[in-house]
């Protein structure tokens, strides 16, 4: 049965309610599908775009600047909507979509690539960003990203707006990538730096998400995420502090790091200038500011599954209640889908149900904000 949160919006988008596709029954198989059976994706032909961080405070909170450091993004142009060799992509994209990965991910992850391809096939250009320390961008900047790394996002948004020219600039964030984008918009104030935003399975309350991932049933998930985070941090070519290395190797005051909370306490919070992990979770959670209303956001869609094993759905429900009628077109809470899974019967090739929701939402925004006749830079 469809959750009442989001039913009118699905009808407007012309999509059926989510139903799981066999054999991916239940939240965990939905979550793990792309790991157990990676989608067949074409070669990555993204064009490298380097974004300078000059003037951005260092991630360690030391007050130093990243004068020579950069973030790496990959720019994908629109693709023909049919496989016909004679078909050509549209001469003018519908807009540019900045696409952000989640915790432990990067621009080449299957979820990011799949959503990017779905957008390209519908006429959008896509800019897939590697956040600080992630993916192929690991050698270009010291440190690692956080849920509230708005100072890193500021030059990215400026560069993306330049690349878009007169075209609409949208963004989509998977999991923690959506949290980063929400915080960036809230920190930027009015007018919003984006023309539209989609967040899929994104944590709104970091404290609640930390407790959720620490549940005994999620031990394997947490172990996998910690391995990714530990590897990203230890691989920093600019070096890490002796205290950080000791903590990551299990020789710090807190012993072996076994939880995301412990990692954030030892690494993320101090690197970004927070006094404690509790301070970080409180300040970097967008929920308290969102409860006041969506006034500082561009048109935004929050898509979440009630059975998400990683990120609790309660904050999305709380937000839907607080926003009242405004939530009818902004919050979509599906009864199933897992964490960034949403694999449904009839999924188009290389596109999940959530991908199709995101694409149709952004298509509607693009139609409402026609381009000004400029080409993508």
Describe this structure in words.
- The chain has 377 residues and is α/β, with parallel strands linked by helices.
- It has one domain: Rossmann fold (3-Layer(aba) Sandwich).
- The protein is 37% helix and 12% strand.
- It has helices spanning 7-13, 26-36, 110-121, 150-164, 176-188, 206-213, 219-234, 242-248, 260-271, 277-284, 287-290, 314-323, 353-368; strands at 47-52, 70-76, 96-100, 125-129, 169-174, 196-200, 300-305, 331-334.
- It has an 8-stranded mixed β-sheet with strand order 1-2-4-3-5-6-7-8, sandwiched between helices.
- The termini are far apart.
- The mean pLDDT is 92.
**SS summary, helix count:** 13
Shape: globular
Taken as a percent bin, the fraction of beta residues is: 5-15%
Taking the alpha carbons of the first and last residues, their distance comes to: 45 Å
Helix content: 25-40%
CATH superfamily: Alpha/Beta hydrolase fold, catalytic domain
Structural class category: alpha/beta
Based on DSSP secondary structure assignment, what is the total number of beta strands? 8
Order of helices and strands: HHEEEHEHEHEHHHHHHEHEH
CATH topology type: Rossmann fold
Query: How are the strands ordered across the major sheet?
Result: 1-2-4-3-5-6-7-8
- Any idea of the CATH class? Alpha Beta
Radius of gyration: 20 Å
Regions with pLDDT < 50 over 5+ consecutive residues? Answer: none
Question: Overall pLDDT, averaged?
Answer: 92
**Largest sheet, described in full?**
8 strands, mixed
Second-tier CATH architecture = 3-Layer(aba) Sandwich
How many independent structural domains? 1
């Amino acid at each position: 049965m469809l959750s009442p949160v989001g039913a009118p919006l699905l009808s407007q988008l012309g999509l059926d309610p989510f139903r799981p596709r066999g054999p991916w029954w239940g939240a965990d198989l939905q979550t793990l599908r792309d790991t157990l059976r990676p989608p067949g994706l074409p070669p990555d032909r993204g064009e490298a775009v380097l974004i300078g961080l000059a003037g951005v405070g260092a991630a360690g909170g030391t007050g130093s600047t990243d004068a020579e450091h950069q973030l790496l993004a990959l720019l994908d142009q629109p693709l023909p909507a049919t496989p016909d060799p004679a078909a050509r992509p549209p001469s003018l994209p519908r807009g540019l979509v900045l696409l952000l990965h989640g915790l432990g991910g990067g621009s080449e992850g299957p979820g990011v690539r799949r959503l990017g391809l779905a957008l390209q096939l519908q006429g959008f250009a896509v800019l897939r960003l590697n956040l600080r320390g992630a993916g192929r961008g690991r050698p270009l900047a010291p440190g690692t990203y956080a849920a509230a790394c708005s100072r890193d996002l500021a030059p990215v948004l400026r560069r993306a707006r330049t690349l878009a020219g007169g075209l609409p600039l949208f963004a989509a964030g998977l999991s923690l990538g959506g949290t980063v984008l929400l915080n960036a918009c809230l920190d930027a104030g009015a007018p919003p730096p984006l023309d539209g935003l989609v967040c899929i399975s994104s944590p709104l309350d970091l404290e609640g998400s930390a407790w959720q991932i620490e549940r005994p049933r999620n031990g394997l998930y947490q172990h996998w995420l910690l391995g990714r985070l530990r590897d990203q941090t230890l691989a920093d070519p600019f070096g890490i502090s002796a205290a950080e290395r000791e903590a990551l190797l299990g020789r710090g005051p807190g012993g072996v790091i076994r939880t995301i909370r412990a990692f954030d306490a030892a690494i993320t919070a101090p690197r970004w200038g927070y006094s404690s992990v509790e301070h970080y979770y409180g300040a970097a959670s967008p929920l308290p500011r969102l409860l006041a209303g969506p006034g500082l956001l561009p048109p935004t869609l929050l898509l979440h599954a009630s059975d998400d094993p990683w990120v609790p759905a309660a904050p999305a429900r709380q937000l839907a209640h607080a926003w009242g009628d405004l939530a009818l077109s902004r919050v979509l809470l599906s009864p199933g889908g897992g964490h960034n899974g949403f694999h449904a019967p009839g999924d188009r090739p290389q596109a999940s149900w959530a991908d199709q929701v995101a694409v149709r939402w952004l298509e509607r925004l693009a139609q409402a904000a026609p381009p000004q006749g400029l080409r993508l830079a």
